[in-house]
Amino acid sequence: MPSIAAGDCRLQAFNPPYERFDSDVAEVLDPSEPARGSALIWWLQDGLAQRPEYDILSDRPHGLPLIVLLPEVSAIRQTLPLLARVIDLAPRAILPAPYLGTPEYLRKVLAAPPRSLPDAVVRYLQRRDVLHDDSIAKEIHRIFELAPEINSVTRLSRRMYTSRRTIGRHFALHELPVPSHWLQFARLLHITIQLQNESSAAFRIATRSGYPDGFTMSNQMKRMIGYRPTEIRNYLGWEWVLESWLRREAAAGSLKLLL
């Protein structure tokens, strides 16, 4: 599979089927639709000359992950005007380009789960301006922690040492989707990670995750996210999946969301 020299184009799209980089980034920068399975690849070389690219990345559409590739150590000094600010872009990864900047490796990076999915989701929702309160952020974090082993709000509320009514009121107070929607989506997001990182059949992942069969899981995935397991498997990353669910909740009127 081809790679390209960093100097050819410093800001690129990485789209399915992940065999090459694309210098045409206009489509993935369109905020009207989540860039399903796409990512931005930024070859950071010159901290002064690339400031306009930094500004573009600061305002990139929600759900579009960023992978930053650094030059050889001997050339790192030239990146310093921007390097200290790269973390503000919330990149998926910062990698040494000469060794890891290939489509094969970046495909693995895009599919790889975050160290802590609950942490990553809460940070995303806070940057997305969905969560404004620490107490509700902690509850959502707990939901994503418990989702692999809990399949009902009744059991969830027991594990959170509260009642269904109390947790429901709390979410309604913050104008968020009902807890059952968060729980079922959290289960699907954990399944997303498995689908993209395992070769196991979808029905095996479904039954292992507490669904009676793969058909039930697939239908719930289609209803809540708009996609089925095959599509989730072919379009890598979890951010676009979360963004798709948020937009469907907003369209249903259960969430206020700035696009």
What does the secondary structure layout of this molecule look like, with pairings?
Blueprint: E1 11-14, E2 39-43, H1 51-58, E3 66-70, H2 80-83, E4 93-96, H3 97-100, H4 103-111, H5 117-127, H6 134-146, H7 153-159, H8 164-173, H9 179-197, H10 202-208, H11 214-224, H12 229-234, H13 239-251
Parallel strand pairs: 2-3, 3-4
Antiparallel strand pairs: 1-2
Helix pairs in contact: 5-6, 9-11, 10-11
Task: Give a written overview of the molecule.
This protein is an alpha/beta fold. The protein has 2 domains: 6-111, no CATH class; 117-251, Homeodomain-like (Arc Repressor Mutant, subunit A), CATH 1.10.10. The chain is built from 13 helices and 4 strands. It has helices at residues 51-58, 80-83, 97-100, 103-111, 117-127, 134-146, 153-159, 164-173, 179-197, 202-208, 214-224, 229-234, 239-251; strands at 11-14, 39-43, 66-70, 93-96. The longest helix is centred in the C-terminal third of the chain and has 19 residues, at 179-197. The chain is globular and about 60 Å long. It starts with 10 loop residues before the first strand and ends in an 8-residue tail after the last helix.
Name some characteristics of this structure.
259 residues; alpha/beta; Arc Repressor Mutant, subunit A; 2 domains; four-stranded mixed beta sheet; 47% helix; disordered N terminus
Give a quick summary of the entry.
This protein is α/β, with parallel strands linked by helices. The chain has helices at 51-58, 80-83, 97-100, 103-111, 117-127, 134-146, 153-159, 164-173, 179-197, 202-208, 214-224, 229-234, 239-251; strands at residues 11-14, 39-43, 66-70, 93-96.
